[in-house]
């Protein structure tokens, strides 16, 4: 089953699904776009060969249309609570200590313990509070132990804006 935190493969590397949403009643996988060259790039999800459907460069978001009969778990989104703990969870690891330092209209700013930072292949990992996705990890700065995530406000809005897909 494909869900937030599931792995997929691109160019021989493990990557992470940030969310699964419905667009016009069809399932789409959401992940970070910086791992791809562009729309049409190939990836493998649960043994299926798929292509990147749409890139939203301004938000570092890639949309991948899934076959309609694919077993998916649609992501439940929450709203970020500032200065509260969050968790990054994918199917290979969990980072239990992360704090939402600040949240804006489109980004979350996260603080980590310096000994438990996300790895490069954790890019795209969902950020959770109360078991709901509040964002999708996009980058980290090792010298400050800080990270940036696309906010659930943006991820949720993808389902309402028709020109994204």
From TrEMBL:
This is Serine protease. It comes from Methanosarcina vacuolata Z-761.
């Amino acid at each position: 089953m494909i869900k937030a935190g599931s792995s997929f493969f691109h160019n021989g590397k493990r990557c992470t699904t940030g969310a699964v949403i419905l667009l016009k009643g069809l399932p789409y996988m959401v992940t970070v776009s910086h791992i791809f060259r562009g729309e049409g790039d190939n990836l493998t999800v649960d043994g299926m060969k798929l292509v990147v459907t749409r890139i939203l460069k301004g938000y570092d978001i890639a949309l991948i249309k899934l076959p309609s009969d694919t077993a998916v778990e649609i992501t439940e989104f929450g709203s970020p609570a500032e200065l509260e703990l969050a968790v990054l969870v994918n199917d290979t690891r969990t980072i239990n200590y992360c704090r939402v330092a600040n949240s804006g209209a489109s980004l979350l700013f996260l603080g980590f313990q310096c000994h438990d930072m996300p790895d490069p292949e954790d890019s795209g990992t969902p950020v959770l509070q109360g078991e709901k996705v509040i964002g999708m990890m996009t980058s980290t700065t090792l010298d400050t132990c800080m990270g940036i995530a696309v906010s659930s406000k943006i991820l949720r809005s993808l389902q309402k804006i028709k020109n994204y897909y």
